[in-house]
Amino acid sequence: MIDSLIIVGITLTYLAGVLWVGLRARGQQNSSLEGYVAGGRHVGVVILFFILGAEIFSAFAFLGAPGWAYQHGAPAFYILAYLSLVPITIWALGPRVAALGRERGYLTQGDMIADHYRSKPLGFLAGVIGVLALVPYLTIQIAGAGLLFQAATDGLVPFWLGALLAFLVVAAYVFCSGLSGIGWTNLVQGIMMIAIAWFLGLSISERLYGGVGEMFAQIQQAAPEYLTLPGATGMDWGYFSTAVLVSAFGGAMWPHLFMKFYSADSGKTLRKVSVFYPLYAYLLVPLLFIGFAGILVFADTPLARADTVLLRMVMEVADFSPWVIGLMLSGALAAAMSTGANLAHTAAIVLVRDVAGPTLMKGASEQTVVSATRWSVLGLSLIAYLFALANPASLVLLLLGAYGLIVQLFPMVIGALFMPRLRRASVMAGALVGSLAYLLMDFVWSSPLGWHAGVWAMLLNVLVVAVWQGATRAGDAALSRTQHS
Amino acid sequence: MNKTYHWLVGLHFTLCTLAMIWPGALIANRIEPMLLGLPFLFFWYILWMLVLFAGMWVAFVVRHGGRHHD
Questions:
Q1: Residue B70 pLDDT greater than 60, yes or no
Q2: Which residue of A15, A158, A404, A426 could cross-link A468, Cys pair, CB 3.0 to 4.6 Å?
């Protein structure tokens, strides 16, 4: 009981600290839409680095990465691979997106698509899909926070209260301070995560095995299949490779990542952030150590849920003091909260600007739009919280489905950025066919060759775009010939 | 210089990507030799994360390092 009180005390102190930083960040710019949404397009290298880093490192990365290492072994390197490859997309697309946004006043993905292809419905559609993907994602962060609290405090703080506490803090600073609140808190939370991850990873392998090298030597003796691909569960190269590609290059289509390109103070800043981005992925290395450490520890009594391996190792096996457990809880909450803040912020903007903008709120003043966005942050967080309490299993399906659809925006976005000759009809046909193919492969049939369905869907998408472009060009040529004769 | 630059950056990105998936990671798919206490495949990923960073750093300095390209 005393132990649990210490853990709760440390964590509440941490939450109060984050809240303080987030509210203090409230600047002068927040009354304008550009200020609230994109930090006035003045965000510099350090803050942008931590914003983009924290977006990718969600509760899933913190708990799921060690879970993968424990359950599958080497296939967990998939997470290292895709996270370190994400900056390639930032390098290639970021500066152009930022420049277009500055020039034409874009704040969302839908803005760019609707303007470039001269189609309001297309922007509206991108907005709807965006909200459908972001809300389940936010729900998962909130549920993660609740579970962490409950497990780490031995039930002293129940699920509903833990989830509520963590996300009241998040909703408060996003409501008040917008992107600058997210930026400064993500700096604090990012440093917290990195420090805790390295401390836990190194000290767990030291305590249980006498060091990282000794740990891997023992795994090599007892269970060498975990240390190379296809791993303990037989993940083949085709799936491994295509999953890395979809996550690394499709990931930039997530609205909360893509829209941050608008907030950079220059294209040079985005390039610099992408240079350092692979270093953020080193955060995962110690978390993988913890998962690997679990392989031999739980060899006789396997865990029912692999993603509880970090919690079990810290709380039961390694025998840490409650102070360390409190810090672990704070670090894991940091992962959930820093991602959740971005998701709530982005979902609110997309909802107000892309979905309500061309329909319910036509011609609204900037003041109205800013306050509608703020209240949407609270509204959407509340909806996600209620979803987390109800815990519908269909949520993960919704997230997977919506994510598959978002990735299919890729050719459309490339067209808007670099290939002005791509027509509206062909990119729409491509996105439609790609999305349908993805949904069918994910939920009805199985994917050919065992590859990730997203890769097949993207290939189909690009093929349809190319064929449609070719056909319309041939049609145009024939038309102009008949007109001239 | 601009064309060569883009080709080289593209080549670097392609190499790093292929090193982390099939077929690049295939040649590193073994436990020995253990380096830094890590199985070779684990070390391979740590190494390529660093190679990716180093190459991008060089590309950044070449393109944005001077005063001309602000």
A1: no
A2: A426
CATH of domain A2-395: 1.20.1730.10
Hey, are the CB atoms on A227 and B42 less than 8 Å from each other? yes
Work out the burial of residue A20: count CB atoms within 10 Å of its CB; fewer than 13 is exposed, 13-18 middle, 19 or more buried.
middle
Taking an 8 Å cut-off on Cβ atoms, the answer to whether A212 and B16 are in contact is no
Q: How far apart are CA B62 and CA B12, in angstroms?
A: 14
The answer to whether residue A308 scores a pLDDT higher than 80 is: yes
User: For the residues of A149-169, what is the DSSP string, one character each?
Assistant: HHHHTTTSS-HHHHHHHHHHH
- Looking at the DSSP bridge assignments, the partners of residue B35 are B38
**What is the DSSP code string of A108-143?**
SHHHHHHHHTT-HHHHHHHHHHHHHHHHHHHHHHHH
Angle at A187 between CA A186 and CA A193, to 5 degrees: 80
CB pair distance less than 8 Å for A244 and B49: no
CB B25 within 8 A of CB A238: no
Radius of gyration of chain B (CA): 15
Express the helix, strand and coil content of chain B in percent, nearest 5 each.
70, 5, 25
DSSP state of B22: T
**How far is Cα A473 from Cα A176, in angstroms, rounded to an integer?**
51
Domain boundaries in chain B? 13-64
Gap between the terminal Cα atoms of chain A: 92
Cβ–Cβ of B37/A212 closer than 8 Å? yes
> Could you tell me which of A97, A51, A33, A100 has the C-alpha nearest to residue A261?
A97
Question: What is the predicted pLDDT for the residue at B69?
Answer: 47
Q: Rounded mean pLDDT of chain B?
A: 90
Mutation for testing the A interface, residue in B6, B9, B21 having most A CBs under 10 Å: B21
Contact state of B17 with A245 under an 8 Å Cβ cutoff? yes
Query: How far is the alpha carbon of B4 from chain A, nearest alpha carbon, in Å?
Result: 16
Rounded to whole angstroms, the Cα distance separating B13 from B58 reads 13
Hey, are the CB atoms on A240 and B22 less than 8 Å from each other? yes
Nearest CB among B20, B31, B39 relative to A244 is that of: B20
Q: What is the pLDDT of residue A485?
A: 55
Average of per-residue pLDDT values in chain A: 89
A199 or A59: whose pLDDT is higher? A199
Structural domain spans, chain A? 2-395, 421-485
pLDDT score for A72: 93
* Helical packing angle, A77-104 and A237-250, nearest 10°: 20
**CB atoms near residue B40 (< 10 Å):** 17
Which residue of chain B comes nearest to A214, CA vs CA?
B37
> How close does chain A come to B30, measured CA to CA in Å?
6
Q: A293 near A209, Cβ under 8 Å?
A: yes
Most distant pair of Cα atoms in chain B: their distance:
48
pLDDT in tens, A151-209: 888 889 999 999 999 999 999 999 999 998 899 999 999 999 989 999 999 999 999 99
